[in-house]
Structures are given as C-alpha cells and as structure tokens.
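Quiz preparation item.
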C-alpha cells in the first residue's frame, strides 16, 4: 500500500520526464546551432569582442531556451484557453505603441516596460497564430464554405495588420498578413473565398503607402534602381550587394570582411547580418545557413503533418510560416529582391523582442509535437447543420 502511494506521488514527475523525453531534441539542436552561428557573427560585428552584441544575445537565447522548453510542456487545451486573452493583450500593446511608443528611425515600434524595450508587433504574430488556431478548431470544415463564419477570423488578421501599418512597420505587417492567409488556406477555406478576401489588398496597399514615412517611400521607389541615389536611399542595398559578392566561394575569412569590419555595411548586426556571413564565409557559409533555416522550416511542417488534432496542426503551420516569412523577407531584402523593410534574420540578428518571440514560437511548435497524439475539440467530426 505504501509503495502504491509513493507511485501516485511520483506520477506527476514521471509525466514531466515523459514529456521532456518526447521533445524533438534534434530540432532543439538545430535551433542551438543556428543561434551559435548568430553568436559567432555578432562577435565579428562587434569588432572581435563579445560586446556590445554577442554576449547580450547569448543571454537572451539562454532565457529563450528556458521559455521554449517550458512552453513545450503546456498541453493544447491550456493553449486554447489562453489564446483569446493573449490576442487581446497583444492588441492593447499595439494600441499603446501608437500613443506612447518609443520612436526609432522614424517609426514607433517599441514600448518601455519595466526598463525593458519591447516590440509588441513581434508578439502579436504568435498571439494571432493561437487565436486563429483556436477559432478554426471550433468550427467544422463544412462551415468553412460559409462566409459569415470567416468574418471574425478575417477581423482578427486585419486588426493587427492595420495597427502595425500605422507604426509604420510594413515588413511585419506583410508577415502578419501572410500568416493569416496561410492559416485560412490550411483550415480548409474555399478557393473562391480566398479570392474574395484578396480583393481589398490593393486598397490596403494604397492605405499602407499613404502612411509610410518619407524614408520608407524612398526605399520602395529606389530598390529597382539603387544606383540612382547611391549615398541616400540606395546606400544600404548597394553596400549589401558589394559584401555579398566580395565573399566569393569561401569568403574573405572570419573577422576579415572588408565591408563589415570597416563599417561600410549598415545595420550589420541586425537587418544585414546575412551579408556579413556571406562576406566572411562565402557562398559555402551562406548556403550552410540557408540549409539550417530550411531544415527548421521543414521540421516544423513535419510536426504539423504528424499532429492528430486540428489545433496542433494549425499552430505548427502558423509558427512555421512565421519563421519562413521572417527568413524570406530578410534574405530577399539583403539581396535586393524587395525593398528594405527592417525585418531581422531569426536567431541570427541582434534583438531581444525578435529572439524571445521566435523562441516562444518554437516552444509552441514543440508543444504540438509533444502532444501530437492528443485528441480534443475535433469539430470536423461533429454533426453540423
């Protein structure tokens, strides 16, 4: 009898150990490897010293790692319950940014909370993923053909998009819209309804352009021909292309990149950190980093496929799409394929809000993997009239 009671007392510990064992530690290793690449590159960006970039970034990653493992332990039912409050909180923070936000480079994007600088638009993306997944988990696939059931989730997407555009932060607004569109499609939305929702896009683009600052409009008008203003709006992308090309196959060597070390490359620790990698490690180093990014994206998609509950599938897909769009926008930006939009390279670029947001997202992704066999709220199996 005493032995039985001891087993009952030890059961929660066994459950916790079982969940920890169920985490995809290979995926965690990939995350740590990419963060290690970021540390090494930020060490170079700081002139061969851990400060001011590498050491603070390592500390943030350590905090993010604990956050990620903690979130991975949370069951889907708890995530569903907190989805709505987290979304409401993210909207409140976005509104607060417009009224009392910290201005940086012509835009209001940060709040000072407890002495920490927080970028609410980063957390709004994760909150949106949870809110949409919780909503679509409640309705059946049959109801996806009724436009009335899609008005609330469409509003959930448009509200943060508009608030982020007013900061203005075009790059993040595009990512939020992309996350929403991908989750609508994955939830089973009819193609004709997707087309219907795309109709307002030109008007939103006009609205966005009208609220951009002069420097952002200059980025859009000069990205096709940056040489027209080489010392102004075109300077960043010109220097980025020079750094990308000068790396060659094997690079100029660690701590020996001319554009980065001589400070010709702007924002080398944030937006243009990939160009530092290409300059110092060449095509081989750049391809390796892109390979790591692809493995993380494909791993997230695999977790979405393996999840047996709709909520988990949608969360995994939304987080993977967020990471994919992060990478796509940043890499396209530094290569001159799209206008410069101020989007960092996840886990590599310097930044606290972006780092913690990405690690929070990975925690949710791992939670869907740990609880991939759980069944709850499967609305598609319910009889609907």
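Solution:
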């Amino acid at each position: 009898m005493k032995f039985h009671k001891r087993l009952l007392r030890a059961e929660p510990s066994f459950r916790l150990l079982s969940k920890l064992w169920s985490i995809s530690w290979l995926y965690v290793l990939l995350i740590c490897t990419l963060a290690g690449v970021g540390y090494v590159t930020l060490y170079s960006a700081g002139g061969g010293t851990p400060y001011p970039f590498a050491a603070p970034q390592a500390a943030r990653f350590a905090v993010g790692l604990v956050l990620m493992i903690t979130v991975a332990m949370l069951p889907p039912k708890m995530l569903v319950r907190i989805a709505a409050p987290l979304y409401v909180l993210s909207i409140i923070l976005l509104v607060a940014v417009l009224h009392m936000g910290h201005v940086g480079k012509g835009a209001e994007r940060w709040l000072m909370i407890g002495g920490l600088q927080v970028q609410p638009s980063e957390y709004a993306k994760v909150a949106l993923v949870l809110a949409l997944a919780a909503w679509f988990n409640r309705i059946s696939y049959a109801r996806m053909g009724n436009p009335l059931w899609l008005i609330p989730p469409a509003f959930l997407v448009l509200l943060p998009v508009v608030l982020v555009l007013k900061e203005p932060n075009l790059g993040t607004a595009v990512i939020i819209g992309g996350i929403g569109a991908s989750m609508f499609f994955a939830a089973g939305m009819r193609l004709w309804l997707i087309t219907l929702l795309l109709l307002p896009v030109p008007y939103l683009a006009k609205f966005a352009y009208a609220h951009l600052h002069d420097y952002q409009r200059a980025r859009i008008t000069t990205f096709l021909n940056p040489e027209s203003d080489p010392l102004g709006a075109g300077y960043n992308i010109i220097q980025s292309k020079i750094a990308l090309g000068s790396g060659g196959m094997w690079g100029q060597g660690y701590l020996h990149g001319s554009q980065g070390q001589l400070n010709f490359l702007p924002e080398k620790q944030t937006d243009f950190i990939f160009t530092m990698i290409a300059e110092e490690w060449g095509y081989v180093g750049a391809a390796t980093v892109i390979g790591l990014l692809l493995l993380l994206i494909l791993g997230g998609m695999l977790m979405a496929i393996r999840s047996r509950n709709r909520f988990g599938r949608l969360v995994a897909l939304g987080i993977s799409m967020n990471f994919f769009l992060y990478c796509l926008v940043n890499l396209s930006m530094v290569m001159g394929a799209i206008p410069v939009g101020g989007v960092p390279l996840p886990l590599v670029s310097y930044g606290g809000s972006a780092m913690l947001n990405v690690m929070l997202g990975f925690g949710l992704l791992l939670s869907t993997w740990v609880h991939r066999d759980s069944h709850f709220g499967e609305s598609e199996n319910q009889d609907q009239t």
